[in-house]
Recover the amino acids of this structure.
């Protein structure tokens, strides 16, 4: 059994891991820095934020190089995974903008016709939901009424995320079809 030769960047990362080789780290930084920055900018990061992420990623590469295993991944795959995870962490930390609450003017009473129309639409929606399969209805309720992310629904049901997304998409298509008369 022959083993394939290691890439130059993988050898450099091994030198950083085993010998804390600063010159090898410089080669890694010179090679991956611009590529990581370009990847981050293409994915929507601003120039300054992309540079900060690159600095963080390369710091992680230096500090966690002992965890690198060339038998599991090439240096590039390992470094890009760190960058992707860092970017996901930053996206998750961003504050989700909350919608502004609209104050109802004092003395504004709902129109009886509006109340009846809303009650009628609610009844149509309830009927349309009852005609969905139990799986589609459950996925829609968990996603929209309980406001659960697809990954959490997947954990709760033990189903793959793709299956959850498909059930939601198919359920929404069926609801659109069932409720098309209400749009007019």
């Amino acid at each position: 059994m022959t083993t394939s030769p290691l890439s130059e960047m993988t050898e450099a990362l091994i030198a950083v891991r085993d010998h804390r080789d600063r010159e090898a780290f410089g080669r890694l930084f010179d090679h991956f820095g611009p590529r990581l920055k370009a990847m981050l900018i293409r994915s929507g990061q601003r120039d300054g934020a992309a540079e900060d992420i690159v600095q963080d990623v390369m710091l992680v590469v230096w500090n966690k190089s002992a965890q690198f295993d060339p038998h599991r991944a090439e240096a590039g795959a390992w470094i890009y995974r760190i960058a992707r995870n860092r970017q996901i962490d930053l996206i998750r930390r961003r504050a989700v903008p909350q919608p502004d609450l609209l104050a109802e003017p004092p003395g504004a009473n709902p129109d009886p016709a509006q109340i009846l129309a809303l009650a009628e639409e609610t009844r149509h929606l309830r009927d349309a939901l009852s005609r969905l399969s139990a799986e589609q209805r459950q996925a829609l309720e968990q996603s929209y009424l309980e406001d659960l992310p697809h990954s959490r629904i997947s954990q709760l049901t033990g189903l793959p995320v793709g299956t959850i997304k498909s059930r939601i998409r198919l359920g929404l298509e069926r609801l659109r079809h069932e409720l098309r008369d209400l749009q007019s």
In short: The chain has two domains: 8-93, 120-183.
